[in-house]
Amino acid sequence: MSKQPDDTLRDRAIKATIWGRDYETKDGEQDRLFNVAIARSYKDKDGNWKETNRFSPDELLRVSRISEKAYDRTEELRSRWKEMREEEKAAAPEPERDR
User: Whole-angstrom Cα distance, residue 55 to residue 16?
Assistant: First the structure.
């Protein structure tokens, strides 16, 4: 079973893949961390699709722009994740207290 990315953004041959990972904080709370992988797709001499994380100077502006879009998207995903966690907490039954 392979994990799917939370989102993928594209600008021609450049793509930013956003990966989310849940973890527990030192306080015991659940949180979500996002990482972004930026790559360029190309065809090798045999016509097979490959990816690299090396970019030509002409591609750097696209890399910069997709990085900014990926940043905005991770903030949106994190905010949405926090909203869902708050809704789950609100819907959870109160633990019974000893009387």
Answer: 13
Backbone angles phi, psi at 42, to 5 degrees: -155, 165
H-state helical runs in the chain: 60-91
Asked if 18 and 70 count as a contact pair (C-beta separation under 8 A), the reply is yes
At residue 89, the pLDDT reads 80
Which residue range forms the structural domain that includes residue 29?
Answer: 7-91
In a domain, 15, yes or no: yes
Condensed to tens digits (0 to 9), the pLDDT of residues 47-85 reads 999 999 999 999 999 999 999 999 999 999 999 999 988
Tally the domains of the chain.
1
> Nearest Cα to 13, choosing from 51, 44, 58?
51
**Is-contact 33 23, C-beta < 8 A?**
yes
